[in-house]
């Protein structure tokens, strides 16, 4: 039986549960449920704090887990990233009072507040910076400067609203770009059961990102049409009753749908239809 760690609270929780439900797995009926047995799929889901998930997966007690890339890197657990999931996007940034320091290289000898001490320690070491202290806090890190326990912070930034409200500004480029990821114990060999779950999850991600596009096009411009819609692997071309025309079917990125339809129309394609993909295995 596969044992999977799922975030029980916070920014990763709802989207992770939705992803697993869309992939056909048993959902938890109430937030207080800590373990869900999905007997049909031979999987046990453990609902854990996102910060702890890398520890469980790294120990080998759980087979796979969903967590944030930043949380994995901060954990120092023996776990590695297997698959990015495309939600819970955030950056990890240094920030300081507006106008105080031009960039992160000016943090030498400063006190830096963060909930990600290991990640920050490793990043500062890489920059050759020795801080006066790394002040480890549980949350609401932005307030640490105003209250005088730190000179700068290193924290998760999504919209930047929290930072601005605290009178802080970003210092330079992000330390890292995070999103939800699937993790596995470092160096483990994936079983057929692992692969099946990953294929299901990937199927959901692709079905969300792509639509199916069907259209008719004169054979004379078919090659150009296929350049506009190269498909996921290759477009399907079918004959039409009408001479010198063919039907084309190809997957198209949802984000590109309208631009693609404009381009196909200008090329002479007609009868352009777009439909959602309910599920897929690719
Ligand atoms: N706006 C956000 N705030 C916090 N974390 C975010 C945000 N957007 C994405 N994330 C990601 O979510 C993960 C943090 O998970 P966590 O459960 O700690 O979220 P949280 O919303 O901060 O929860 P909590 O209610 O415990 O503060 C990190 O990987 C982080 O990059
Ligand atoms: O860039 P923003 O959109 O403002 O989001 C980022 C903020 O959200 C999170 O805080 P959270 O609400 O989780 O509170 P916490 O600091 O107590 O964890 C994170 O720690 C940042 O403070
Ligand atoms: Mg938080």
TrEMBL record:
Enzyme Commission number: 2.4.2.17
Annotated pathway: Amino-acid biosynthesis; L-histidine biosynthesis; L-histidine from 5-phospho-alpha-D-ribose 1-diphosphate: step 1/9
Segment forming the signal sequence: none
Database matches in Pfam families: HisG, HisG_C
GO molecular function: ATP phosphoribosyltransferase activity
Top EC class, one word: transferase
Keyword Metal-binding: yes
Coiled-coil region list: none
Protein name, entry field: ATP phosphoribosyltransferase
Species the sequence originates in: Frankia umida
